[in-house]
């Protein structure tokens, strides 16, 4: 499904208020407020590829209702992110493309490029309406594998996209000697500078085909963040996207976890091939 709409320029100084659907509490109830555990994430200056192709997906749902997620440039005019970032839970419907903007490689007040979104493509069968959700801020387990969206930018970006890689039933990094697994995104505690957990792990097609389980440190705001395989020679590929945390602990107004769930590349590879490589 593709939505099309005319676009306007993004407002300046957009600050994250709340995700369209806050999946931090999707799978298990969060722990009670307490001192946060040690954090493996470190700030990242996105000056080199593939991190220049990772950016903020800003969603303006109203004058005082704005949110952000993380997205990855996978083609000159296409960005991959989590579908739930585009759903307005207040109105119980999808936002319009003109409400969405992509900022690549944002680092405080600098970035590698900005673009308006003119359309987006959702996973077939995804349904996030209130009547289908087990709770206000959650989605059913069978929707996790459909929690992806492809944004079409109004103008191409002069950046090198990140390729995607379909790995079936892989347990990384163990099944890919020499490779490093990393999760990088724009978290709620550093919304204008990406953070990275480099050296974590991911299981592809777990707990069911088309999904993934990652053991990477993450936080609210990193929905849609790429799960990357970094090769020794400098090559990199996206093997899936992170969309939810499990067993999250409350840190301020957000949730942080060392374990997450997401969508394996096998779920969206065909759509990417059709959309990005016509």
UniProtKB/TrEMBL annotation:
Q: Which UniProt keywords apply?
A: Signal
Task: Answer whether the UniProt record assigns the keyword Signal to this protein.
Answer: yes
SMART domains membership: Tryp_SPc (SM00020)
What molecular functions are annotated in GO for this chain? Answer: serine-type endopeptidase activity
- Tell me where the signal peptide lies: 1-33
| Domain Peptidase S1 positions | 49-277
> What are the recorded Gene Ontology BP terms?
proteolysis
Q: Which SUPFAM superfamilies match?
A: Trypsin-like serine proteases (SSF50494)
Q: Which Pfam families match?
A: Trypsin_2
Name under which the protein is recorded: Peptidase S1
The beginning of the lineage is: Bacteria, Pseudomonadati, Pseudomonadota, Alphaproteobacteria, Hyphomicrobiales
């Amino acid at each position: 499904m593709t939505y099309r709409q005319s676009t306007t320029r993004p407002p300046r100084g957009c600050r994250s208020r709340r995700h369209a659907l806050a999946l931090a509490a999707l799978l298990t109830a969060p722990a009670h407020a307490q001192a946060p555990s040690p954090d493996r994430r470190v700030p990242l200056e996105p000056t080199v590829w593939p991190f220049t192709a990772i950016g903020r997906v800003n969603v303006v749902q109203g004058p005082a209702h704005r949110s952000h997620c993380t997205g990855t440039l996978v083609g000159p005019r296409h960005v991959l992110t989590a579908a739930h970032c585009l759903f307005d839970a207040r109105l119980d419907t999808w936002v319009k493309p003109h409400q969405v903007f992509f900022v690549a490689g944002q680092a405080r007040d600098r970035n590698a490029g900005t673009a308006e979104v003119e359309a987006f493509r959702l996973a077939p069968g995804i349904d996030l309406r209130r009547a289908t959700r087990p709770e206000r801020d959650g989605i059913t387990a069978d929707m996790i594998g459909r929690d992806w969206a492809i944004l079409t930018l109004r103008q191409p970006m002069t950046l090198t996209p990140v390729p995607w890689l379909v790995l079936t039933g892989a347990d990384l990094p163990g099944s890919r000697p020499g490779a490093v697994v990393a999760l990088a995104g724009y978290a709620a505690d550093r919304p204008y500078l990406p953070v990275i957990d480099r050296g974590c792990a991911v299981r592809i097609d777990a707990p069911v085909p088309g999904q993934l389980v990652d053991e990477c440190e993450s936080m609210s705001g990193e929905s849609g963040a790429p799960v990357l395989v970094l090769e020794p020679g400098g090559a990199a590929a996206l093997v899936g996207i992170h969309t939810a945390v499990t067993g999250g602990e409350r840190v301020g107004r957000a949730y942080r976890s060392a374990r997450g769930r997401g969508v394996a590349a096998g779920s969206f590879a065909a759509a990417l091939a059709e959309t990005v490589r016509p």
